[in-house]
Design goal:
The protein is 21% helix and 28% strand. With 696 residues, it is an alpha+beta fold. Strands 12-23-22-21-16-19-20 form a seven-stranded mixed beta sheet, sandwiched between helices. The two termini are 53 Å apart.
Length: 696
């Protein structure tokens, strides 16, 4: 991570920028060591030794600035730290081993020859050195991810012969193998390897899910989707909504309110709704995304090697072999990340973190203008997958890179994850992960999740993308995602409104449910909260995803609907608004088509989630084999459930399909036919025998 000399410790690796003051070569025993005298960004001078096996440094220039990635910290060795035991090889005194001992005797000799008495740095073959050139020159500062081989110091080292001795060898003064036979002690170190919804203004939409791609793709491929893969806000973002008329406002956010009363097509219950149209006063011409400080975090764990259209963990948790002729999640993620970098401007800054069981800073954050971007994209395409999934470690590395960034509202600090969201190493608990991302958001570092593959963990990404400033997308194909980036990248990374709260002030109504917000579950009887609103596109004056729908429960026959709304805008300004809403007196009364469409979609989502949850809880079309395997899946590693529609849900889906098709005709919205088509697929899907039906 970024550091200064004062924070360098023994046996730890650091990413540090230094200015070269001087350099010279030393002959030390059988090798040659280069001594560098450098100063860090705080002006502190210190010594760095370059090991004989280090990668070539090229021509070094004094007064030039270099980036040392993975520099090893070391402390001097003091022979007075002797151990009372004797060396099994030569009877000499033993001292406790140190990290420098693992780098070879040549480095020890160089440190002694220079009489180093303070912490110094070591450049070995795991360290990469890049010159930070003057603005205008292009830098390829990619550092390939290497095997996770930590530097381990020996237990003891003989001050006389230099032998390395393990603690277990001291019980009888002899070096032994595990079988007890005598052996020679090897002293060589081991290798390290926007009036009415006007077309001229920007629309708004909530954070959280930005599509229902994963849900649709699972159904298309014969799987029962995870319930969290279809959310109201994700599905709403597939549609454009009339938001209605509103009072004039000087605020950027201009909420529009409308009410509706409608009978549910399946239950016959009369339901009352309030829609909050998400509109703005910001003109499209005046919208400008902030400068970005962006760190892309690329998941390179083993599950990313699986085909894009298959589940990596299947058959009761055993790993599926990747099909070589199918596009993998890793390939799609790399292509998507390369496409994302094409959207950056010269004054944006980009960093890249790779992570599997550990995090690796592959590219330190730097302005795009001085970065050799074609070279960086080439490196990204060459990344391979393997190992565990330490999502928290990857995120913390990104946050460290962004931690010292600007806090101005005209700068957006954002982490973009490319992942299938199946952490199995390090911090994996939902509560702990949520706390980690929420703490960063509180510090102004926001997150976008790009879910890769059919088996992407929809539950976890749904949870984390509800945090302030967060959103998520599922990738259907890298090519399609690339087109989407071209259309809406600037909106994707620019939160405009925070902490929207809607409180019912007059007695007579309570909030029964909220649709279209990732914070829906946090609603109380009287209060609804939305963490974040992002800009969205408009079409014929309608805003994409531009609605939050509140289902109401009337508690008094003389009820009045009065609201108090409050929110904070990106520039820090705070706003409040109080309004009274007229509720239709009879069923099938809608203030406008926008609220009607939202009601249709909310009912649709409710039915589909209930079905998917029921099937998953019962283990799919077959019985559950709950035998615990030694290599069983972790809590976030997803296994497929075959597509199955119990008879109870098949009957409901037939009636729901008729309702959606009828509403599509009334609304004259052809895009709703995609939901009719999906319901048709479900109605034609296999169902269980009656004795295996999911209970009501």
């Amino acid at each position: 991570m970024n550091t200064i000399y004062a924070n360098v410790g023994d046996g730890t690796r650091h990413d540090i920028s230094v200015e070269l003051i001087s350099h010279r070569e030393l002959e030390c025993g059988e090798g040659r060591v280069t001594e560098l005298v450098v100063s860090d960004q705080a002006g502190e001078e210190f010594t760095v030794l370059v090991a004989p096996d280090a990668n070539g440094l090229g021509d070094l220039a004094t007064e030039a600035t270099y980036r040392l990635s993975g520099m090893l910290g070391a402390i001097p060795v003091y022979d007075s730290e002797a151990h009372e035991a004797e060396c099994p090889a030569c009877t000499g005194d033993l001292r406790p081993g140190q990290v420098i001992d693992a780098t070879g005797r040549t480095m020890l000799q160089a440190a002694a020859q220079l009489e180093l008495d303070e912490t110094f740095g070591i450049i070995d073959r795991r360290t990469t050195v890049h010159r930070v050139r003057e603005r205008g020159a292009l830098v390829d500062d990619w550092d390939s991810m290497k095997a996770d081989r930590p530097v381990e110091s020996p237990d003891y080292v003989c001050v006389s012969c230099g032998s390395h001795v393990n603690a277990y060898e001291l019980h009888d003064g002899r070096a032994r193998t595990e079988t007890g036979e005598n052996q020679t002690v090897d002293s060589a170190p081991a290798p390290m390897n926007d009036s009415m919804a006007s077309p001229e203004t920007v629309g708004l939409a909530t954070g959280g899910a930005k599509d229902a791609t994963n849900f649709r793709d699972n159904v298309e491929n014969g799987y029962t989707p995870q319930p969290e893969a279809i959310s109201d806000e994700g599905l709403f973002y597939d549609y454009y909504f009339e938001t209605g008329n509103g009072a004039e406002s000087d605020a950027l956010f201009a909420p529009r309110y409308a009410a509706a009363v409608s009978d549910h097509p399946l239950t016959g219950d009369t339901e009352q709704y309030l829609s909050v149209g998400l509109d703005s006063t910001l003109s499209v011409a005046d919208f400008e995304r902030p400068r970005l400080e962006l760190v892309a975090v690329l998941d390179v764990s083993g599950s990313m090697s699986s085909p894009f259209d298959a589940y990596y963990y299947d058959e009761q948790g055993r790993k599926q072999e990747a099909v070589t002729d199918a596009s993998t999640k890793m390939e799609a993620a790399a292509q998507s990340l390369c496409a994302l970098t094409e959207q950056l401007d010269g004054d944006d800054r980009l960093g890249v973190v790779l992570y599997n069981s550990r995090a690796h800073i592959a590219k330190p954050i730097r302005d795009v203008e001085t970065t050799d971007m074609p070279a960086i994209r080439s490196h990204i395409r060459d990344v391979s997958a393997g190992g565990g999934t330490n999502l928290a470690d990857g995120f913390e590395a990104a946050v460290d890179m962004l931690g010292d960034g600007s806090l101005d509202s005209d700068v957006e600090r954002r982490v973009v994850f490319m992942t299938d969201m199946m952490p199995n190493v390090g911090t994996t608990g939902n509560q702990e992960l949520t706390g980690l991302f929420a703490d960063a958001a509180a510090d102004g570092i926001h997150t976008t999740f790009i879910g890769m593959g059919l088996d992407a963990n929809a539950e976890l990404v749904d949870t984390l993308s509800g945090i302030r400033g967060a959103n998520h997308y599922f990738v259907h194909s890298a090519t399609e995602f690339e087109r989407r980036l071209g259309d809406e990248f600037d909106y994707m990374v620019t939160p405009l409104v925070y902490d929207l709260s809607l409180e019912l002030e007059a007695a007579g109504y309570e909030i029964d449910a909220v649709h279209g917000s990732p914070s829906a579950d946090e609603a109380t009887d009287q209060l609804m909260h939305v963490e974040t609103l992002f800009p969205s596109a408009k079409q014929d004056g309608e805003a994409r995803g531009g609605v939050v729908l509140v289902r109401l429960a009337q508690t008094s026959p003389e009820a009045e609907l009065e609201l108090a709304a409050s929110w904070t805008e990106r520039d820090g300004s705070e706003h409040t608004q109080r309004v009274s809403i007229d509720v239709p007196e009879e069923a099938e009364g809608f203030a406008h088509d926008g609220v009607r469409k939202a009601v249709v979609l909310a009912r649709y989502v409710r039915e589909l989630r209930e079905w998917a949850r029921a099937v998953h809880e019962r283990g799919g079309a077959a019985g559950v084999d709950d035998w615990a395997l030694s290599d069983g899946r972790g809590q976030h590693e997803r296994q497929s459930v075959p597509l199955a529609v119990p008879q109870k849900y098949g009957t409901r889906f037939e009636r729901l399909r008729e309702y959606v098709e009828s509403e599509a005709s009334v609304l004259e919205d052809e895009t709703l036919q995609q939901e009719v088509g999906l319901l048709t697929t479900l109605c034609e899907s296999p169902s269980r025998p009656k004795h295996e039906e999911v209970d009501s």
